[in-house]
User: What shape does this take?
Amino acid sequence: MKTLNFVGSLEVTLFAMLVVFSVLVFIALIIKIQTFLLSKAEKTLKNKNGKKDLEIEKKETMIEKHQEEISVSSEDADLEVVAAIMAALSSYMDVPSENLVIKNIKRLNGNGWKDSAIKNSLR
Assistant: This one.
């Protein structure tokens, strides 16, 4: 049996590295070919469905125009806040919201969460 010297081991190492890199290049070429073929197939599908895509784009632009025209007034925002508070109270008290009547809502000075936590810890 023949033993390898330093030069022989370098030859084996370089040959193995050459094999690995050539396989990697081959895999990269396969991926490039697949992306090229898939993009070509996608373009042909878009051409077939081009009319449908144009109709969808027109509808989307119309929806965007209508959304820009809609504006929320401060009264609507206040009603949304009242509705959110009523839903939270209804859920917390386990009472149907039809049985609740909110007469007045006042903002408290200070941190309400902090005060509530202190009261709960003193119970």
Observations:
- Helices lie at 6-48, 50-69, 74-93, 112-122.
- The chain has four helices and no strands.
- The mean pLDDT is 78.
- Residues 7-69 form one domain.
